[in-house]
Amino acid sequence: MATEKRLSARRKHTLKSCMLMVANNLLEAEASVKAEERQKFLAEKLPPLELPYSKDELMELCKKLHEQIDISEEERYCIEFKLNMVLNEVRDLNIKIVDLRGKFKRPRLKKVRMSADAMLKALLGSKHTVNMDLRANLKQVKKEVKEEDKQLRDVGDWRKNIEDKSDRKKMFDS
C-alpha cells in the first residue's frame, strides 16, 4: 500500500469533475430517449383529434372515446392486478428466504452497569414509580454464637492456648 502512488488532490478533483460530466451527459441522453419514447407512444395511442361540426358526428366521437377509455381502464386494471400479485409473491419469497436463513444474528450487547430502578424505568418508562430496594426484601438472619467460638475469643493468654494444643498433640502421638 505504501509503495503505491497516491493521487494528488488536484488530480482527484479533475477525475471527479470528469466523472460528473459523463454522468450528466448520460442522464440527459436517457431523458431525451424517454421523451422520444413517450411521444411515440402517445402518437400511437392518441391520433390527432378532429372535431366534427354536426351533433351526430360529435355523439359518435364521444362513443368512440368512451370505448377507448373502457379499453384503457381494463388494461390498467389488469396491469395493476398483475403488479399486486407479483408484489405479494415477492413478499412471500422474501419471508421464505428469511425463514430458510434461520435466526437473525444477534448483535453483541455492551455491558452496562445499571441499578434495578434505572432498568425498570428504562423498560417501563414513566410508569415506574416504586422504589425497588433489594436488600429490604432479604430475610434477617440472627447469627448464632457457639460456645466454642466464645471460648476461643475469650482466651486471654496465648501461652495457655498453646499448652492446651500441645497436650492434644501428645494424645495423638501416643
Automatic annotation (TrEMBL):
<dbReference type="Pfam" id="PF00992">
    <property type="entry name" value="Troponin"/>
</dbReference>
<dbReference type="GO" id="GO:0003779">
    <property type="term" value="F:actin binding"/>
</dbReference>
<dbReference type="GO" id="GO:0060048">
    <property type="term" value="P:cardiac muscle contraction"/>
</dbReference>
<comment type="function">
    <text>Troponin I is the inhibitory subunit of troponin, the thin filament regulatory complex which confers calcium-sensitivity to striated muscle actomyosin ATPase activity.</text>
</comment>
<protein>
    <submittedName>
        <fullName>Troponin I, fast skeletal muscle-like</fullName>
    </submittedName>
</protein>
<dbReference type="GO" id="GO:0005861">
    <property type="term" value="C:troponin complex"/>
</dbReference>
<dbReference type="InterPro" id="IPR001978">
    <property type="entry name" value="Troponin"/>
</dbReference>
<keyword id="KW-0009">Actin-binding</keyword>
<dbReference type="GO" id="GO:0003009">
    <property type="term" value="P:skeletal muscle contraction"/>
</dbReference>
<dbReference type="InterPro" id="IPR038077">
    <property type="entry name" value="Troponin_sf"/>
</dbReference>
<dbReference type="InterPro" id="IPR050875">
    <property type="entry name" value="Troponin_I"/>
</dbReference>
<keyword id="KW-0514">Muscle protein</keyword>
<comment type="similarity">
    <text>Belongs to the troponin I family.</text>
</comment>
